[in-house]
């Protein structure tokens, strides 16, 4: 962090502006708006300065800058068109440990001024640390479009309601729930935009009586295979509203970074050398948290309904009459193969796809016979440790030993790794890879050579 961002309270605090020209005018306007007691030192002043003086908004001192003018000042801005004078102001202010900004010269300043969107009391400040002011301005314009002009009024009303809300809703969760309704309420926004005081009051009263204490719920959310950009917008919304997030090993750090900062995080995944939390225990955590009125997100890697035991968790919630919803996610088979440049189907090579668990309940020989058919793509989840077994089963069903295979490790993440080979090499290939890894079997694997787009070719 090159600069420490703060908002200064300048109301009734003596500040100094050096310079009486047009550039200085812009700075003077800001300092006046902030309520500073402003002295302006310059050999001459624009008519605007003289007018402000007449309106008693500032004091003009017709003189050259000298150290005496710094006495008792909290903050100084040098805005003359004379570099030497600006430099002198900065040096003298620094010796006195007074924060000083030099217009258009961030390297000579002890504070810089950001690009500002003013919806007081809401203020958004954007800075590029003096490195790319145009980019800061473009960003400001973008943010500006997102923020309705009535935002300041909304924040003011909220400020006045705070103590009433605190009295009315006893728990923090209930209060947060009220505020979320309050800020999202379209009817209230319409009344505010139209400046109808009666309507605003009525709507607020309705919100007070309509806001029921929140009922706990669970959202089962698919986080996708790793790249946070692959989570759905619905999934993201759930993560940002959650009180509690229960997650496991496959959920990437990138995705966890998008979870609401104040949400409690409960890890229920496997750690090397430790047992994973038993399924019953996970179910119980979900039930307990939701029963306490919390909005729980059960975050799972990929899609929660594909080898995710998501449905088992929902059954437990149904038994406890806890409301739930499900947000699908991009499953590893889809995400990892796409990022590896392997299409799961292709008119010439594969007319169907099978998702198969390498773990779990056994498949009989008849099933392996179907699996080993041509013109399809096989995707084995949780197959890394069982690669030798998978290889043997497929070969025993007369699948060609030269059938193309690939293993994709940590797919869609920056550290994604992929190796390709032939079926007879699968178990050897698996020894060089780590979990989580996906095994792909089928002719589509060869398309990777042409279609690889993510990461450069090795
Ligand atoms: N519900 C998840 C799958 C859970 S089973 C989904 O829809 O994707 C766990 C297995 O998924 C892992 O053993 C691995 O085979 C596969 N997997 C999940 N994420 C992966 C990733 N980023 N890269 C490679 N394999 C992954």
TrEMBL record:
Could you name the domain of life of the organism this protein comes from? Bacteria
MF terms (GO), sorted A to Z: NAD binding; precorrin-2 dehydrogenase activity; sirohydrochlorin ferrochelatase activity; uroporphyrin-III C-methyltransferase activity
Q: Which UniProt keywords apply?
A: Cobalamin biosynthesis, Lyase, Methyltransferase, Multifunctional enzyme, NAD, Oxidoreductase, Phosphoprotein, Porphyrin biosynthesis, S-adenosyl-L-methionine, Transferase
For region Precorrin-2 dehydrogenase / sirohydrochlorin ferrochelatase, the annotated ranges are 1-204
Pfam families recorded for this chain? CysG_dimeriser (PF10414), NAD_binding_7 (PF13241), Sirohm_synth_M (PF14824), TP_methylase (PF00590)
Which region ranges are annotated with the description Uroporphyrinogen-III C-methyltransferase? 216-458
The Gene Ontology biological process annotation of the record reads: cobalamin biosynthetic process; methylation; siroheme biosynthetic process
Query: Which pathway or pathways does this protein act in?
Result: Porphyrin-containing compound metabolism; siroheme biosynthesis; precorrin-2 from uroporphyrinogen III: step 1/1; Porphyrin-containing compound metabolism; siroheme biosynthesis; sirohydrochlorin from precorrin-2: step 1/1; Cofactor biosynthesis; adenosylcobalamin biosynthesis; precorrin-2 from uroporphyrinogen III: step 1/1; Porphyrin-containing compound metabolism; siroheme biosynthesis; siroheme from sirohydrochlorin: step 1/1
**Domain Siroheme synthase central as annotated: residue spans:** 124-145
Question: Could you tell me which residues carry Phosphoserine?
Answer: 128
Q: Which reaction does it catalyse?
A: precorrin-2 + NAD(+) = sirohydrochlorin + NADH + 2 H(+); uroporphyrinogen III + 2 S-adenosyl-L-methionine = precorrin-2 + 2 S-adenosyl-L-homocysteine + H(+); siroheme + 2 H(+) = sirohydrochlorin + Fe(2+)
Which amino acids does the record list as binding NAD(+)? 22-23, 43-44
Domain named Tetrapyrrole methylase is located at 218-426
Question: EC number(s) for this protein?
Answer: 2.1.1.107, 1.3.1.76, 4.99.1.4
Give the residues the record marks as binding S-adenosyl-L-methionine.
225, 301-303, 306, 331-332, 382, 411
What parts of the sequence cross the membrane?
none
Among InterPro entries, the record links this protein to: 4pyrrol_Mease, 4pyrrol_Methylase_sf, 4pyrrole_Mease_sub1, 4pyrrole_Mease_sub2, CobA/CysG_C, NAD(P)-bd_dom_sf, Siro_Cobalamin_biosynth, Sirohaem_synt_dimer_dom_sf
The entry's active site is 248, 270
Q: Where is the Sirohaem synthase dimerisation domain?
A: 150-207
Q: Which family does it belong to?
A: Belongs to the precorrin methyltransferase family. In the C-terminal section; belongs to the precorrin methyltransferase family.
The function of this protein is: Then it catalyzes the NAD-dependent ring dehydrogenation of precorrin-2 to yield sirohydrochlorin. Finally, it catalyzes the ferrochelation of sirohydrochlorin to yield siroheme.
Q: What name has this protein been given in UniProt? A: Siroheme synthase
Q: Which organism is it from?
A: Proteus hauseri ATCC 700826
